[in-house]
Amino acid sequence: MVNYRYLGNSGFKISEITYGNWVTHASQVGDDAAVATVHKALDLGITSFDTADAYANTAAEVVLAKALKGQERANLEIFTKVYWPIGKKGPNDQGLSRKHLMDGIHGSLRRLEVDYVDLYQAHRYDYETPLEETMQAFSDIVRQGKALYIGVSEWTAEQLRAGHALATDLGFQLVSNQPQYSALWRVIEEKVIPTSEELGMSQIVWSPLAQGVLTGKYLPGQPVPEGSRATDEKSGANFIKRFLNDDVLTAVQKLKPIADEAGITVAQLSLAWVLHNPNIAAALVGASRPEQLEDTVKASDITLDDATYAAVNDALSSVAVTDGAETDTVSPKSRPA
């Protein structure tokens, strides 16, 4: 079963393996398969579910609602996000303006068929909207009971600090950040994690398996497996390309003997490596088939000793990206056209 961790400096607990439906629901898999994977997640003890209005242009939220129908609402933690263009993608159908945040929360609640979301997240930083406007709107959404907690995604350390200060002045708190993080992509370690620890914020990390590369299934010098994410332009193929070179894939193969020594799979080792960091509240995992979750959730019961953690670092030291400046490049400097 899956263990729980507090989200930031709050009393709110989430499952440390959280189910995310970014590239699967209403895109990579049909609705029946999506429902089956969510039901499997529930059976395995996952109660936290992450989505976004932009996933499949709002359709992923609809599919998640279908999959969770009939579940006791109080026993679920439902997260969604707002920022990227949705719907007709007009000038006010994007960003973090008060207009879009209010339209966004109402649309997400309607599609998810709930009265509130547990966590509402700014999907990126909006350079075109005053931060004061954004945080005031979030404050009002919390006071109206439409979201219980507020988080962000891929904000820099400086942005986290400024947003946290405004939230505190407005009487609520930022509890989380949702960045990319894995043993191959460690850019948040330099500034974002130390700042978050200081501010009482946690990370809910996406791509903890580097889009599947950290399962060890992609082999150097070999074609990518048929049906894998690397072959499907709708399921994150562009995101995986940066890792599909022989230097990275050769280094990842060094994880196999480390995992064998620990009696676990490479995927479990990679997830346990992420969860070894106490500032990580949850690792987001997805699945196109229910049986994929059976392997990954077992990472919740694995505690790596320091020697194993160090062995992973040594194996990937020549290929892991650690430059904290990468965090400055994620949010667009202007809203998408």
UniProtKB/TrEMBL annotation:
Keywords: NADP, Oxidoreductase. InterPro entries: AKR (IPR020471), K_chnl_volt-dep_bsu_KCNAB-rel (IPR005399), NAD(P)_OxRdtase_dom_sf (IPR036812), NADP_OxRdtase_dom (IPR023210). The keyword Oxidoreductase applies. Signal peptide: none annotated. Residues 17-314 form the NADP-dependent oxidoreductase domain. Gene3D superfamilies: NADP-dependent oxidoreductase domain. It holds the Pfam family Aldo_ket_red. Belongs to the shaker potassium channel beta subunit family. PANTHER family: HYPERKINETIC, ISOFORM M, L-GLYCERALDEHYDE 3-PHOSPHATE REDUCTASE. This is Aldo/keto reductase family protein. It comes from Microbacterium flavum. The lineage of its organism: Bacteria, Bacillati, Actinomycetota, Actinomycetes, Micrococcales.
